[in-house]
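**Sequence, structure tokens**
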Amino acid sequence: MLDQKDLKPRDLQRPDEQLVKLTDKDIMPLPKPYDKPGMEPSFTEPKAAWKEKYCTSLDGFVALDTLTRPKTPEAEEEFVQKFLSGLEKIFSDCNGGILQPLSLTFEYCAKCNTCSEACHVYEGSGNNELYRPIFRSEVLRKLYKKYFTTSGKVFGGLVGADMDATWESVARLGEAAYRCNLCRRCAQTCPLGLDNSIPAKEIRKIFSQEMGIAPSPIHSKGTVNQLKTGSSTGLTKPAFLDTVEFLEEELEEKFGRKIKFPIDKKGADILLVHNAGEFIAWPQNPMAFAILFEEAGLNWTLSSEMMGYDSVNYGIWYDDIQAKRVATGQMTAAKDLGVQRVVIGECGHAHKAAAVIADRMVFGDAKVPVESCFPLLREIAFSGALKFDPSKNNFPVTLHDPCNVVRQMGIVQPQRDILKLIAPQFREMTPHGVDNYCCGGGSGFAIMNSPNFGEFRNKVSARKKFAQILNAFQDTIEDPSVVKYICAPCSNCKGTIRGLLEYYEATEKFNLQYDGLVELMVNALVSMDKPYFEFLES
């Protein structure tokens, strides 16, 4: 096994059983109280069965659970040829939507490594060469030059075309594409304005669109499920309606509020669309939205139509064709209701999918204006229609900035204005806003747990975020009597943070709690007779 400092992009073709092995002593140290021995679980070895079935030879982790080892040399060759076919296509006119920025990154990257210093995965890994943003980009560059440029075919290694496309090199490159959260912090810091997340996304696209290979949690259990049932969770229309009825009963039973969720209200001003995971994992979130919208007197509705009640669109992470199918279905559902605008709830990835990506995939009369919930929530908070008692939230609160809200869309201030109004002990993470670090669960990582990918997320990709959380609460972190609240207004981010707190036993040991922004707003309402949070009741 190579020393990680000696690792080069062309080493992806080496026959080693495993190129990189992460150890507890190599990765980035955590702040107190997790700076002491025994405070976090150690890395585990990949099982022998995984090594036989999957590609564990990159770093021991498996993201692509549908990438299995070919049984024959002929199958290996077919695998490689499919990849090369896709590689040629991403640099052709058929990839028009992304071809220009991809080509600029491909041609003009100066390899200055400014992006490495900005990458939370690279830093979390202890500056392991494998996780530099330019590492996989350089592998892609070498392969393309070798097989599709005259200079590469003639001069080979003299022009950097010194890699062969083999089962091992291509499979490892596919895995490497899922060591990036696509958070685009690298693009923000690049002095040339290049974006090394694009090659990672394009590698994923080759594997999905050309080779039929994608992580099952985001494809077969995600996108395919959504196109079949209406939701990536498998929540069908009847189940959705039953869930909403249950939430109405919960609101009345727990808080004495008789609220009827408006369903399929034609011509409403607002179609509120949640990540369907909220209805299942965090029902307090859509309940909080209902309380706020009703108390503010808004004209709003939910949709029960297929593709109308789940804002998820996992295709934006790995497959343009799937992304367009979902985006078109979602927009059609909104158009059919005749609403004035779509408001995306607390889901960061849905902000990008519905407001940025869909805008480039759905055209003409089919489009409905899409907005973020955060400016609207600020408008509600400062309208005077609702009365808040900040003393109800008089505990330390910090804010996690979802990448696709702040960096992708520039929505930074509304959520802060609200927190300064309702949370007396609000404190920022360092850094924050557009300079934030990804939660470590972006681009699918939050839901990818098979076979051992959850360990990579908890110990590496989310490591920088966990350190930020601990640093934000250093004044009270070791006092379990003090509630410490992580405001994470995004379903995927909440999923990652939930996993972190469970993995590190941080709630049990140090009373670290998490939830969204709307829950904190409802907890502060003067009209609420009891705490909205269960952890405050206990």
User: Anything to note?
Assistant: The first helix runs from residue 48 to 53. The chain is about 45% helix and 5% strand. The CA atoms of residues 269 and 412 lie 24 Å apart. The first strand starts at residue 270 and ends at 273.
